[in-house]
Amino acid sequence: MTPSFPRAEVVIDLDAVRHNVALLTERASGAALMTVVKADAYGHGALPVARAALEAGATWLGACSLDEALELRRAGITARLFSWLDMPDVDFAPGIEADVDLAASSIGELRRIADAARRVGARARVHLKIDTGLSRNGCPPPLWAELVEAAAAEPLIEVVGVWSHLACADEPGHASVDLQAKRFDEAYEAARAAGLDPMRHLANSAALLTRPDLHFDLVRPGIATYGLNPVPTGEDLRPAMTFRSSVVLTKRVPAGESVSYGHSWTADRDTTLALVPCGYADGVPRVLSGRLDVWLGGRRRPVAGRVCMDQLVVDCGDTEPELGAEVVLFGAGAGGAPTAREWADKLGTIDYEVVTSMYRPRVRRRYLGDRS
Protein backbone atom coordinates (compact mmCIF):
# COMPACT_ATOMS: atom_id res chain seq x y z
CA MET A 1 0.00 0.00 0.00
CA THR A 2 1.29 3.47 -0.86
CA PRO A 3 1.70 5.51 2.35
CA SER A 4 -0.48 8.60 2.76
CA PHE A 5 1.75 11.54 3.60
CA PRO A 6 -0.20 14.34 5.28
CA ARG A 7 0.12 17.94 4.25
CA ALA A 8 -1.29 18.94 7.62
CA GLU A 9 -3.10 16.54 9.92
CA VAL A 10 -4.35 16.30 13.47
CA VAL A 11 -4.46 12.78 14.84
CA ILE A 12 -6.93 12.33 17.69
CA ASP A 13 -6.32 9.40 20.03
CA LEU A 14 -9.76 8.40 21.31
CA ASP A 15 -8.21 5.86 23.66
CA ALA A 16 -6.47 8.79 25.35
CA VAL A 17 -9.86 10.49 25.67
CA ARG A 18 -11.32 7.33 27.21
CA HIS A 19 -8.40 7.08 29.62
CA ASN A 20 -8.80 10.69 30.69
CA VAL A 21 -12.55 10.45 31.17
CA ALA A 22 -12.20 7.27 33.22
CA LEU A 23 -9.57 8.94 35.41
CA LEU A 24 -11.71 12.06 35.88
CA THR A 25 -14.76 9.96 36.71
CA GLU A 26 -12.68 8.24 39.38
CA ARG A 27 -11.67 11.63 40.83
CA ALA A 28 -15.23 12.96 40.84
CA SER A 29 -16.10 11.77 44.38
CA GLY A 30 -19.25 10.03 43.20
CA ALA A 31 -20.58 13.03 41.28
CA ALA A 32 -21.90 12.49 37.78
CA LEU A 33 -19.55 13.64 35.02
CA MET A 34 -20.36 15.96 32.13
CA THR A 35 -17.81 15.95 29.34
CA VAL A 36 -17.70 19.38 27.74
CA VAL A 37 -17.59 19.06 23.95
CA LYS A 38 -18.22 22.68 22.99
CA ALA A 39 -16.31 24.26 20.08
CA ASP A 40 -16.20 20.91 18.28
CA ALA A 41 -14.74 19.30 21.40
CA TYR A 42 -11.96 21.87 21.69
CA GLY A 43 -10.99 21.12 18.10
CA HIS A 44 -10.96 17.33 18.57
CA GLY A 45 -14.33 16.52 16.96
CA ALA A 46 -17.52 16.63 19.02
CA LEU A 47 -19.19 13.40 17.90
CA PRO A 48 -16.21 11.01 18.15
CA VAL A 49 -15.19 12.52 21.49
CA ALA A 50 -18.76 12.37 22.79
CA ARG A 51 -19.03 8.68 21.96
CA ALA A 52 -15.65 7.90 23.52
CA ALA A 53 -16.47 9.86 26.66
CA LEU A 54 -19.79 8.09 27.15
CA GLU A 55 -18.08 4.73 26.68
CA ALA A 56 -15.60 5.69 29.42
CA GLY A 57 -18.12 6.72 32.08
CA ALA A 58 -19.43 10.21 31.30
CA THR A 59 -23.22 10.47 31.65
CA TRP A 60 -23.68 14.06 30.49
CA LEU A 61 -22.36 16.11 27.57
CA GLY A 62 -22.00 19.88 27.61
CA ALA A 63 -22.29 22.14 24.57
CA CYS A 64 -22.10 25.90 24.42
CA SER A 65 -24.85 26.45 21.85
CA LEU A 66 -28.13 24.72 21.21
CA ASP A 67 -27.02 24.05 17.63
CA GLU A 68 -24.02 22.09 18.97
CA ALA A 69 -26.29 20.03 21.22
CA LEU A 70 -28.83 19.35 18.47
CA GLU A 71 -26.11 18.20 16.10
CA LEU A 72 -25.20 15.51 18.65
CA ARG A 73 -28.86 14.50 19.05
CA ARG A 74 -29.24 14.18 15.28
CA ALA A 75 -26.16 11.94 15.26
CA GLY A 76 -27.85 9.54 17.67
CA ILE A 77 -26.51 10.66 21.05
CA THR A 78 -29.15 9.88 23.69
CA ALA A 79 -27.28 10.91 26.85
CA ARG A 80 -28.22 14.02 28.81
CA LEU A 81 -27.19 17.14 26.88
CA PHE A 82 -26.79 20.63 28.31
CA SER A 83 -26.40 23.87 26.36
CA TRP A 84 -25.90 27.22 28.02
CA LEU A 85 -25.20 30.20 25.77
CA ASP A 86 -27.22 31.35 22.78
CA MET A 87 -28.30 34.48 20.97
CA PRO A 88 -31.40 36.38 22.16
CA ASP A 89 -33.38 35.32 19.07
CA VAL A 90 -32.68 31.59 19.34
CA ASP A 91 -35.72 29.34 19.19
CA PHE A 92 -35.54 26.99 22.18
CA ALA A 93 -38.40 24.81 20.90
CA PRO A 94 -36.21 22.34 18.97
CA GLY A 95 -34.06 21.91 22.07
CA ILE A 96 -37.07 21.17 24.26
CA GLU A 97 -38.39 18.70 21.69
CA ALA A 98 -34.98 17.01 21.60
CA ASP A 99 -34.81 16.79 25.42
CA VAL A 100 -31.83 19.14 25.71
CA ASP A 101 -31.29 20.81 29.08
CA LEU A 102 -31.17 24.61 28.79
CA ALA A 103 -29.67 27.39 30.90
CA ALA A 104 -31.35 30.57 32.08
CA SER A 105 -29.48 33.54 33.53
CA SER A 106 -32.28 36.11 33.46
CA ILE A 107 -36.03 36.53 33.66
CA GLY A 108 -36.10 37.34 29.96
CA GLU A 109 -34.28 34.14 29.04
CA LEU A 110 -36.52 32.11 31.34
CA ARG A 111 -39.61 33.57 29.68
CA ARG A 112 -38.33 32.80 26.19
CA ILE A 113 -37.76 29.18 27.25
CA ALA A 114 -41.24 29.01 28.82
CA ASP A 115 -42.82 30.45 25.65
CA ALA A 116 -41.07 27.78 23.59
CA ALA A 117 -42.27 25.10 26.00
CA ARG A 118 -45.86 26.29 25.56
CA ARG A 119 -45.54 26.07 21.79
CA VAL A 120 -44.08 22.56 22.05
CA GLY A 121 -46.50 21.44 24.74
CA ALA A 122 -43.78 20.00 26.97
CA ARG A 123 -41.88 21.05 30.05
CA ALA A 124 -38.40 22.46 29.58
CA ARG A 125 -35.51 21.21 31.69
CA VAL A 126 -33.68 24.32 32.91
CA HIS A 127 -30.51 25.03 34.90
CA LEU A 128 -30.50 28.45 36.55
CA LYS A 129 -27.10 30.13 36.47
CA ILE A 130 -25.93 32.41 39.24
CA ASP A 131 -23.02 34.79 38.67
CA THR A 132 -20.80 34.12 41.67
CA GLY A 133 -17.91 36.34 40.62
CA LEU A 134 -16.81 35.62 37.06
CA SER A 135 -18.96 38.58 35.97
CA ARG A 136 -19.64 36.99 32.63
CA ASN A 137 -22.86 35.03 32.02
CA GLY A 138 -25.13 34.31 34.98
CA CYS A 139 -27.75 36.11 37.05
CA PRO A 140 -26.44 38.93 39.27
CA PRO A 141 -27.05 38.10 42.96
CA PRO A 142 -29.46 41.04 43.53
CA LEU A 143 -31.77 39.60 40.84
CA TRP A 144 -31.46 35.96 41.86
CA ALA A 145 -34.48 35.79 44.19
CA GLU A 146 -36.74 37.12 41.43
CA LEU A 147 -35.37 34.56 38.97
CA VAL A 148 -35.81 31.52 41.21
CA GLU A 149 -39.31 32.62 42.26
CA ALA A 150 -40.33 33.08 38.62
CA ALA A 151 -38.90 29.67 37.74
CA ALA A 152 -40.71 28.02 40.63
CA ALA A 153 -44.01 29.59 39.55
CA GLU A 154 -43.77 28.56 35.90
CA PRO A 155 -45.51 25.18 35.36
CA LEU A 156 -43.71 24.50 32.07
CA ILE A 157 -40.25 24.94 33.61
CA GLU A 158 -38.60 22.08 35.45
CA VAL A 159 -35.63 23.49 37.34
CA VAL A 160 -33.09 20.70 37.08
CA GLY A 161 -30.03 22.49 38.38
CA VAL A 162 -28.36 25.54 39.87
CA TRP A 163 -24.92 26.21 38.51
CA SER A 164 -22.07 28.67 38.17
CA HIS A 165 -18.53 28.88 36.81
CA LEU A 166 -15.24 29.52 38.59
CA ALA A 167 -12.87 32.29 37.54
CA CYS A 168 -9.59 31.18 39.11
CA ALA A 169 -9.84 27.46 39.86
CA ASP A 170 -6.64 26.95 37.87
CA GLU A 171 -4.83 28.95 40.58
CA PRO A 172 -5.17 26.66 43.62
CA GLY A 173 -5.52 28.70 46.80
CA HIS A 174 -6.85 31.79 45.04
CA ALA A 175 -9.20 33.57 47.45
CA SER A 176 -11.90 33.98 44.81
CA VAL A 177 -12.61 30.25 44.74
CA ASP A 178 -13.84 30.16 48.32
CA LEU A 179 -15.74 33.41 47.82
CA GLN A 180 -17.50 32.00 44.76
CA ALA A 181 -18.24 28.77 46.62
CA LYS A 182 -19.88 30.80 49.44
CA ARG A 183 -21.99 32.79 47.00
CA PHE A 184 -22.96 29.60 45.21
CA ASP A 185 -24.11 28.02 48.46
CA GLU A 186 -26.21 31.09 49.24
CA ALA A 187 -27.80 30.96 45.80
CA TYR A 188 -28.59 27.28 46.19
CA GLU A 189 -30.23 27.86 49.57
CA ALA A 190 -32.33 30.66 48.07
CA ALA A 191 -33.48 28.28 45.35
CA ARG A 192 -34.41 25.71 47.96
CA ALA A 193 -36.30 28.35 49.94
CA ALA A 194 -38.31 29.12 46.79
CA GLY A 195 -39.46 25.51 46.72
CA LEU A 196 -36.99 24.16 44.16
CA ASP A 197 -34.96 20.97 44.56
CA PRO A 198 -32.17 21.36 42.00
CA MET A 199 -28.90 19.56 41.55
CA ARG A 200 -25.72 21.66 41.87
CA HIS A 201 -22.73 21.92 39.55
CA LEU A 202 -19.76 24.23 39.79
CA ALA A 203 -16.50 22.32 39.23
CA ASN A 204 -14.57 22.62 35.96
CA SER A 205 -11.43 20.58 35.21
CA ALA A 206 -9.27 22.46 37.69
CA ALA A 207 -11.78 22.29 40.54
CA LEU A 208 -12.47 18.63 39.82
CA LEU A 209 -8.76 17.89 40.33
CA THR A 210 -8.13 20.19 43.31
CA ARG A 211 -11.41 20.87 45.16
CA PRO A 212 -13.38 17.72 45.94
CA ASP A 213 -15.55 19.81 48.29
CA LEU A 214 -16.96 21.54 45.21
CA HIS A 215 -17.88 18.43 43.24
CA PHE A 216 -21.51 18.47 44.45
CA ASP A 217 -23.83 16.48 42.13
CA LEU A 218 -22.14 16.97 38.77
CA VAL A 219 -18.69 18.00 37.52
CA ARG A 220 -17.95 19.56 34.13
CA PRO A 221 -14.40 18.79 32.93
CA GLY A 222 -13.41 20.33 29.64
CA ILE A 223 -9.70 20.68 28.88
CA ALA A 224 -8.66 17.75 31.09
CA THR A 225 -10.76 15.47 28.89
CA TYR A 226 -8.27 16.18 26.11
CA GLY A 227 -5.25 15.37 28.27
CA LEU A 228 -4.21 18.95 29.04
CA ASN A 229 -3.99 19.76 32.73
CA PRO A 230 -4.85 23.29 33.87
CA VAL A 231 -3.22 22.71 37.27
CA PRO A 232 0.11 21.05 38.21
CA THR A 233 -1.40 18.00 39.91
CA GLY A 234 0.71 15.29 38.29
CA GLU A 235 -2.35 13.36 37.12
CA ASP A 236 -1.82 10.79 34.37
CA LEU A 237 -3.70 12.76 31.73
CA ARG A 238 -2.79 11.87 28.16
CA PRO A 239 -2.86 14.51 25.41
CA ALA A 240 -5.21 13.31 22.70
CA MET A 241 -4.13 15.54 19.80
CA THR A 242 -1.02 15.31 17.64
CA PHE A 243 -0.41 17.87 14.90
CA ARG A 244 1.75 16.47 12.14
CA SER A 245 2.96 17.00 8.60
CA SER A 246 5.69 15.45 6.44
CA VAL A 247 8.79 16.24 4.44
CA VAL A 248 8.20 17.03 0.75
CA LEU A 249 11.67 18.24 -0.30
CA THR A 250 15.24 18.26 0.99
CA LYS A 251 18.20 20.28 -0.19
CA ARG A 252 21.77 20.93 0.84
CA VAL A 253 22.75 24.59 1.26
CA PRO A 254 26.16 26.11 2.00
CA ALA A 255 27.12 28.23 4.99
CA GLY A 256 26.02 31.82 4.46
CA GLU A 257 22.83 30.93 2.58
CA SER A 258 19.65 32.51 4.01
CA VAL A 259 16.18 31.02 4.30
CA SER A 260 12.59 32.26 3.82
CA TYR A 261 11.09 35.74 3.70
CA GLY A 262 13.19 38.57 5.04
CA HIS A 263 16.26 36.32 5.32
CA SER A 264 15.88 36.33 9.10
CA TRP A 265 17.90 33.08 9.34
CA THR A 266 21.27 32.36 7.74
CA ALA A 267 23.08 29.03 7.84
CA ASP A 268 26.28 29.20 9.93
CA ARG A 269 27.50 25.93 8.36
CA ASP A 270 26.73 23.68 5.44
CA THR A 271 23.40 22.08 6.29
CA THR A 272 20.42 20.11 4.97
CA LEU A 273 17.03 21.77 4.86
CA ALA A 274 13.71 19.93 4.86
CA LEU A 275 10.60 21.56 3.42
CA VAL A 276 7.34 20.94 5.32
CA PRO A 277 4.10 21.87 3.51
CA CYS A 278 2.15 23.56 6.30
CA GLY A 279 2.22 27.08 7.64
CA TYR A 280 0.13 29.74 9.28
CA ALA A 281 -2.89 28.96 7.06
CA ASP A 282 -2.79 25.50 8.66
CA GLY A 283 -2.44 26.65 12.27
CA VAL A 284 1.31 27.23 12.70
CA PRO A 285 1.50 30.77 14.11
CA ARG A 286 3.86 33.03 12.18
CA VAL A 287 4.86 34.65 15.47
CA LEU A 288 6.65 31.39 16.35
CA SER A 289 9.20 32.03 13.59
CA GLY A 290 12.65 31.66 15.10
CA ARG A 291 11.21 29.98 18.22
CA LEU A 292 9.75 26.77 16.88
CA ASP A 293 11.11 23.23 17.00
CA VAL A 294 9.58 20.15 15.39
CA TRP A 295 10.14 16.43 15.98
CA LEU A 296 11.74 14.84 12.94
CA GLY A 297 13.81 11.69 12.69
CA GLY A 298 13.68 10.96 16.42
CA ARG A 299 14.90 14.35 17.63
CA ARG A 300 13.94 17.99 17.95
CA ARG A 301 15.01 20.17 15.06
CA PRO A 302 14.64 23.95 14.69
CA VAL A 303 12.54 25.68 12.08
CA ALA A 304 14.82 27.87 9.96
CA GLY A 305 13.49 31.31 9.06
CA ARG A 306 9.97 32.58 8.98
CA VAL A 307 6.85 30.42 9.00
CA CYS A 308 5.06 31.05 5.70
CA MET A 309 1.41 30.70 4.77
CA ASP A 310 1.80 27.21 3.29
CA GLN A 311 5.21 25.96 4.37
CA LEU A 312 8.11 26.03 6.76
CA VAL A 313 11.72 24.91 6.56
CA VAL A 314 13.52 22.70 9.08
CA ASP A 315 17.28 22.73 9.70
CA CYS A 316 18.39 19.08 9.72
CA GLY A 317 22.16 19.53 9.91
CA ASP A 318 23.95 16.60 8.31
CA THR A 319 20.88 14.36 8.33
CA GLU A 320 18.81 14.01 5.18
CA PRO A 321 15.25 12.89 6.00
CA GLU A 322 13.37 10.69 3.57
CA LEU A 323 10.55 12.20 1.54
CA GLY A 324 7.34 11.60 3.45
CA ALA A 325 9.11 11.45 6.83
CA GLU A 326 6.77 12.38 9.67
CA VAL A 327 7.11 15.85 11.19
CA VAL A 328 5.39 16.33 14.56
CA LEU A 329 4.66 19.96 15.35
CA PHE A 330 3.10 19.17 18.72
CA GLY A 331 1.73 16.10 20.43
CA ALA A 332 1.94 14.07 23.62
CA GLY A 333 5.57 15.04 24.20
CA ALA A 334 7.04 11.53 24.08
CA GLY A 335 10.82 11.60 24.13
CA GLY A 336 10.90 15.37 24.41
CA ALA A 337 8.77 16.22 21.38
CA PRO A 338 6.99 19.60 21.36
CA THR A 339 3.60 19.90 23.07
CA ALA A 340 0.60 22.19 22.83
CA ARG A 341 1.52 23.56 26.24
CA GLU A 342 4.97 24.48 24.91
CA TRP A 343 3.37 26.34 22.02
CA ALA A 344 1.03 28.12 24.42
CA ASP A 345 3.88 29.21 26.69
CA LYS A 346 5.79 30.64 23.72
CA LEU A 347 2.69 32.38 22.41
CA GLY A 348 1.71 33.81 25.79
CA THR A 349 -1.62 32.02 25.77
CA ILE A 350 -3.16 28.74 27.00
CA ASP A 351 -3.18 25.32 25.41
CA TYR A 352 -6.98 25.52 25.10
CA GLU A 353 -6.48 28.09 22.34
CA VAL A 354 -3.80 26.05 20.61
CA VAL A 355 -5.85 22.87 20.18
CA THR A 356 -9.14 24.64 19.50
CA SER A 357 -7.44 26.56 16.68
CA MET A 358 -6.64 23.35 14.79
CA TYR A 359 -10.05 23.08 13.14
CA ARG A 360 -9.08 24.40 9.69
CA PRO A 361 -10.14 23.51 6.13
CA ARG A 362 -6.74 22.19 4.97
CA VAL A 363 -5.99 20.27 8.16
CA ARG A 364 -7.39 16.79 7.84
CA ARG A 365 -8.48 14.96 10.97
CA ARG A 366 -7.78 11.29 11.63
CA TYR A 367 -8.86 9.16 14.57
CA LEU A 368 -7.16 6.35 16.44
CA GLY A 369 -9.24 3.99 18.55
CA ASP A 370 -12.56 4.77 16.85
CA ARG A 371 -15.02 2.02 17.79
CA SER A 372 -18.06 3.40 15.97
Can you give a write-up of this model?
The chain has 2 domains: 213 residues, Alanine racemase (TIM Barrel), CATH 3.20.20.10; 128 residues, Lyase, Ornithine Decarboxylase, Chain A, domain 1. Helices cover 30% and strands 23% of the residues. Helix 5 links the parallel strand 4 and strand 5. The model has no long low-confidence stretch (mean pLDDT 97).
Helix count, DSSP H or I runs of 4 or more residues: 11
- Tally of structural domains: 2
* Residue-averaged pLDDT: 97
CATH A-level architecture of the largest domain? Alpha-Beta Barrel
Helix content: 25-40%
Count all strands and give the number.
19
Q: How much strand? A: 15-25%
Overall 3D form = elongated
Q: Which oligomeric form is depicted?
A: single chain
How far the N terminus sits from the C terminus, by CA atoms, comes to: 24 Å
Low-confidence stretches: none
| Structural class determined from secondary elements | alpha/beta
Rg estimate, integer Å: 24 Å
- CATH topology name of the largest domain, in short, is TIM Barrel
- Top-tier CATH class of the largest domain: Alpha Beta
Helix/strand order, N-terminal first: EHEHHEHEHEHEHEHEHEEEEEEEEEEHHE
CATH superfamily of the largest domain: Alanine racemase
The major pleated sheet works out as:
8 strands, parallel
Side-by-side strand order of the widest sheet: 8-7-6-5-4-3-2-9
Topology:
Elements: E1 9-13, H1 14-27, E2 32-36, H2 38-43, H3 46-55, E3 60-63, H4 66-74, E4 80-83, H5 93-97, E5 100-104, H6 107-120, E6 124-129, H7 141-153, E7 157-163, H8 175-193, E8 199-201, H9 205-210, E9 218-219, E10 241-246, E11 249-253, E12 258-259, E13 265-266, E14 271-276, E15 293-296, E16 299-302, E17 312-315, E18 326-330, H10 340-347, H11 351-356, E19 364-368
Parallel strand pairs: 1-19, 2-3, 2-9, 3-4, 4-5, 5-6, 6-7, 7-8
Antiparallel strand pairs: 1-10, 10-18, 11-14, 12-13, 14-17, 15-16, 15-18
